[in-house]
Design goal:
With 181 residues, the chain is an alpha+beta fold. The protein contains five helices and five strands.
């Protein structure tokens, strides 16, 4: 896994070269018909970049994990529960809007020490950039936190996946635990 900034820059340049982007990716083809295709029926560079980023996130099973009250937030592979530290993946998450699946949970512990999770999985209508995601889920998050017994509440958090997938409670619990809940 690349760790230095130079290695990450090299990977990013390779990704853009693989996309066929040698100039600015936001420039439209001069023969653009408005149908989202270039003059030869090929997708425009920005559309290719967006599709490539979606594929990168999907194949790496990327999820954004947020845990309160610690405020810990990171990217992780939701299947293997390993933290992701890739500039290319971070750029892919921040550059485009996605349809998200969000798993919201309140981690609780009762008087006897038994741990349990109250959770809900939602898919907000529309597509969102990651920086606007908290606005879309705030209502559901606060509703779930308020429904949990305050004497039992240990932590709460959410897992946001930029794809339309469903997550089982056991997998979500493993991911929360790996992220530090």
């Amino acid at each position: 896994m690349p760790t230095s900034r130079a290695q990450l820059s090299k990977i990013t340049r390779r990704l853009w070269r693989a996309l066929g982007n040698t100039n600015c990716c936001w420039a439209k083809d001069s023969n653009d018909t408005g149908a989202g295709k270039g003059s030869l029926g090929r997708p425009l560079p920005l559309e290719r970049a967006e599709r490539s980023c979606r594929a990168l996130l999907r194949t790496n099973h990327v999820a954004v994990v947020n845990i309160d009250p610690s405020g810990n937030q990171n990217m992780a592979n939701w299947k293997s529960c390993r933290q992701i530290r890739s500039l290319a993946i971070a750029n892919a998450i921040f550059d485009f809007s996605y349809r998200w699946t969000i798993y919201i949970a309140a981690m609780c512990r009762d008087e006897r020490g038994a741990e349990y999770i109250k959770s809900v999985e939602i898919s907000p209508e529309g597509i969102y950039k990651v920086e606007r995601l908290t606005d879309a889920i705030e209502h559901y998050y606060l509703e779930l936190r308020n429904s949990a017994n305050p004497n039992h509440l240990v932590a709460s958090g959410w897992i946001a996946i930029p794809d339309e997938v469903s997550m089982e409670e056991a997998q979500a619990a493993k991911l929360f635990y790996a992220a530090g809940a």
